[in-house]
Amino acid sequence: MLAPTTETELSEAIKSAEGTLRVRGGGTRPVGNLVTGEVLSTSGLSGIELYEPGALTIVAKAGTPVSEIEAALAAENQRLPFEPMDHRAILGTKGTPTIGAVAAGNISGPRRIQAGACRDSLIGVRFVDGNGTAIKNGGRVMKNVTGYDLVKLMSGAYGTLGVLSEVSFKVLPGVEACSVLLIEDLSVEDGVRAMSMALGSPYEVSGAAHVPVGLDGKPITMIRIEGFAASVAYRADELRSALSEFGASTIESDPEKTSAGWKWVRDVEKFAGTSGDLWRISVKPSDAPGIVAALGTDQVLLDWGGGLIWAEMPVGTDARAKLGAFSGHATLIRALEATRSELDVFQPELPSLAAISKGLRDRFDPRGILNTGLMG
């Protein structure tokens, strides 16, 4: 295993590579098509390099544990806006999630509907391309224009275009209080409709999720409001009134319960320790009920107001075959190695997009050594 501790060492490792490399951060989210080659770990590139609470920016080496980032921010009552998911529960992995892997995978949690995705908070990157050349794009301030937006390009590329060595994020103030509106026994259709109404309201919803089979076996719809305590209390009451057509609801404001509940949603803990294949499906929220019906299972969790569907399917089932042509994309997150060998993990690209992707890979990784085949 290659384990560089500086960007220079990272550059040399890539430059001198004689075969393909499996780029890895903390090793907690082995998502993608199966990749062969020598492991290149970025976990040795660790440490917060700059944190300016007053400027709402933080800069860290790619291998820095997410927990270290979050602890430093919490000490100043700040947070990462996009609430990154931890895949260890559903994938059964160990290790420590790193901030570079979060950026490389564009890993975003329930707050995405309000604060945007990981790439929307990413303001600067340093990375090493497939030639071993170190490249910088973006900066350490929120307003930065430097030509081509490689920052957005690198977020979601899963290390196929370059290996991140440093990332810069804008951050947000922490929240004083949180309340969750809980509505029981709604169908998927009504759950999505309630979430859509909440998200379209003026009450600044920061999370909206629905499960047909909750912890007690019954459907539950969860709508989160955060902010200053008095404002949260007012908005939660107003939202409950606005959604009264969906029946009786309760408001949960206990900090421990609300935190645990949204961690359950964020990390998809409903499917932790289960044995089926797990699919992540991104669609228009209005299409969610039809998608769930086509899948033919109630073992789903809807996040992002219905825009993100986590679905557990029987082992070896191709969810895309059940869905046919649809507007969105489906990614196989968890499955046996045999299934991952047979199916495309990521949604197959249209020919026009595939040509663009190939052109980018040819430009940034002309030798084809970085996570070769991981994304198809």
Entry summary:
The protein folds into three domains: 7-173, Uridine Diphospho-n-acetylenolpyruvylglucosamine Reductase, domain 3; 177-266, Alpha-Beta Plaits (2-Layer Sandwich), CATH 3.30.70; 274-342. The protein is 30% helix and 25% strand.
Overview of this structure, please?
There is one protein chain. The protein has 376 residues and is α+β, with helices and mostly antiparallel strands. The chain folds into three domains: 7-173, Uridine Diphospho-n-acetylenolpyruvylglucosamine Reductase, domain 3; 177-266, 2-Layer Sandwich (Alpha-Beta Plaits); 274-342. The chain has 14 helices and 17 strands. Strands 3-4-8-6-7 form a five-stranded antiparallel beta sheet. It has a four-stranded antiparallel beta sheet with strand order 11-12-10-13, sandwiched between helices. A four-stranded antiparallel beta sheet has the order 15-16-14-17, covered by helices on one side.
